[in-house]
Amino acid sequence: MKEPKRGDGGGHSPPPSPYHPRRVGAARTAPGDAPLDALALEDAFIALTDGVVVSSASGDIVSANPAAFRLLGEDQLVGQIFDELLLVSGAATVQRTDGHVVRRAWFPREDRMGVLEIVSTGIQERGWIHTIRDVTAQAELLRLKEDFLLQVAHELRSPIAALSASLDLLHQDALTMPRDELAKMLSTLMRSALRLEHLIENMLDAGSIEAGTFQVRALPTSIRAALKEALEVAQHQLDAKGQQLVTRIAPGSDRVLADPRRTAQVLLNLIANASKYSPESTSITVSTAPTDGSIEVVVADEGPGIPEDERPKLFQPFYRARTAREAAGGVGLGLTICRAIVQAQGGDIRITADPSGGTAVHFTIPKARELAEEARGA
Question: What's the number of CA atoms in the CB half-sphere (13 Å) around residue 218?
């Protein structure tokens, strides 16, 4: 795609700009100062990252900066009718006020459609100035948040339905219900309550991460204890799919310096993800190994794996891989929260995948101080 050189309107010399730079400069300088040079104004026009298009009262484009050519994907702009150019892209008006029109248009990008926001401002009766901004990222974030709200409603529905059904049965038959059935019912209520608590905790944590107020409280603790706490919530999910959890805690790799509750939350999120996206009757492995000053924990599954190009995006809020969207529900916050917890504790987190299938999430936790000192003295 060709971008015009200064003074080149894409093949024709454009008419004088309606900006009248010397008049603008004179109006914006203090008495006695030299007016803003027209060349400086032209340089600013060319350097803008937002596209700027000037059209006449009849709609003909008379000037455009290089960013406009890039954003609109056009080699030739001067002489075209601006509204006709937007009509081809299916532009829609989203706001109209006195002297301003805001429109959204869709233009092809490398791998998807891009979204442009065009704000058109009238220049008295002489024409229009159109500013063009790429809002693809903002539109994608809005789409992800809308998808997030739908997924949250879906995730909340299951435990709430289980709570409602169990409470209804208890209300009707609690006095006559056999003891073993009553215990089973109470267990169902407890699991549903824990699922709701886990989901709400994740949403609250996502809010504190975005606000910059997320904190952890590191103490000497045990990975085994954190794993036991995580399984109190995750075990039913594993049992429902006939999956087996395999633990391999290497010698000297249990005691760490971490927030006990947050570490259990990381393990719960990773085990729940591994279970959700893996076939029935498969194994999920949690293993640990000592490294220099840290313990590396790996949660590995036998699922479909994640394409390499999607792995860096998995820690973004609300993002869910294509295979995840097709296989199961979820709100896309688990890995975001895992990264925040791991990094706040002084560790790191990454994802690997086997080309033949299976995903492994690796994260590190600092060793408890006494163990770290022993490792340095060894």
Answer: 16
Q: How far is Cα of residue 119 from the mean position of the Cα atoms in its chain? A: 27
Token reading at 142: 């809005």
Is the separation of the CB atoms in 351 and 363 below 8 Å?
no
Question: Whose CA is closest to 55, among 128, 119, 124?
Answer: 128
Q: Are 98 and 120 in contact (CB under 8 A)?
A: no
- CA end-to-end distance (rounded Å), the chain: 63
DSSP letters for 15-51: PPPTT-HHHHHHHTS-TTSPPPPHHHHHHHHHH-SSE
Strand partners, 107: 114
User: In order of start, what are the domains of the chain with their CATH numbers?
Assistant: 21-134 (3.30.450.20), 144-377 (3.30.565.10)
Q: What is the DSSP letter of 355?
A: T
Residue 113 phi, psi (nearest 5):
-80, 135
DSSP conformation letters of 131-197: EEEE-HHHHHHHHHHHHHHHHHHHHHHHHHHHHHHHHHHHHHHTTTS-HHHHHHHHHHHHHHHHHHH
Q: What is the pLDDT of residues 319-361, one digit of tens each?
A: 666 655 555 555 567 888 899 999 999 999 999 987 677 899 9
- Which residue has 């949690």 as its token pair? 286
The pLDDT tens digits of the residues spanning 77-104 come to 888 888 888 876 678 888 888 778 898 8
Q: Show Cβ contacts of residue 362 under 8 Å, excluding neighbours closer than 6 positions.
A: 296, 297, 298, 349, 350, 351, 352
Q: Report helix, strand or coil for 276.
A: helix
